């Protein structure tokens, strides 16, 4: 995997928290970052897979690195709060936070917190984890927060439907016939970009850099648990997809170069360069509204 590395910044010796690292893009990125000497905290739901990965990363690195396993369900606010406390207790410094975990659910499922599942995992989980770790990131100086978005954010059309955040309409039987799951997934990816925009605005002058990126169409196990039609669709799409390693290239580039210092904070990236997202993703009023709504959903105010 090629990377534009600048001697002024390297991931070597940095401590990286990454979600969704046990498969797909996250796995490819974790492998590459370990080879480059990054210490890592893997946040995963499956403890067994995470421990196997941690052992592999330690063995594959040319440098002696620390790889911790933190078990959490990104759909559960209590689980996220618990793991954030564990991370803060264990590590006095966090240099990079990578919000990579994501999922898509074609049926309307509510979490234990009463939140629609795709929204909870893809947006609200990263929003909460980031804010709970934010003070430590700010104290670390020149820290980075990188969130995996998607070209799929354009499926949300004109923007997030705040009047239907629980997806009753989009994931109703009629909504599903009209492509509701795709819209819902696109909505959460749009939320990733808007969250990054508002976070960058609130972090002005702090030294913390934030970014969202599009990995492209990647051949992973994503969307394999949503029935035979979803599996068939993903099987066909794999013929035109990138490998996970190719999909992770921009993520690694952002983590291991000066790229985020050379562009405006909260930029959106694809193929290792800044790119302009959809018009809906540039809506600063929607970004501010999303922040307020997200605080209500997690029951906590940040930046007060």
From TrEMBL:
InterPro entries on file: NAD(P)-bd_dom_sf (IPR036291), SDR_fam (IPR002347)
Q: At the top level of its lineage, which domain of life is listed?
A: Bacteria
What SUPFAM superfamilies does UniProt report for this protein, alphabetically? Answer: NAD(P)-binding Rossmann-fold domains (SSF51735)
The answer, when asked if Cytoplasm is one of the entry's keywords, is: no
> Looking at the keywords, is Oxidoreductase present?
yes
Q: Which UniProt keywords apply?
A: Oxidoreductase
Kindly provide the name given to this protein in its UniProt entry: SDR family NAD(P)-dependent oxidoreductase
**Species this chain originates from:** Paenibacillus hexagrammi
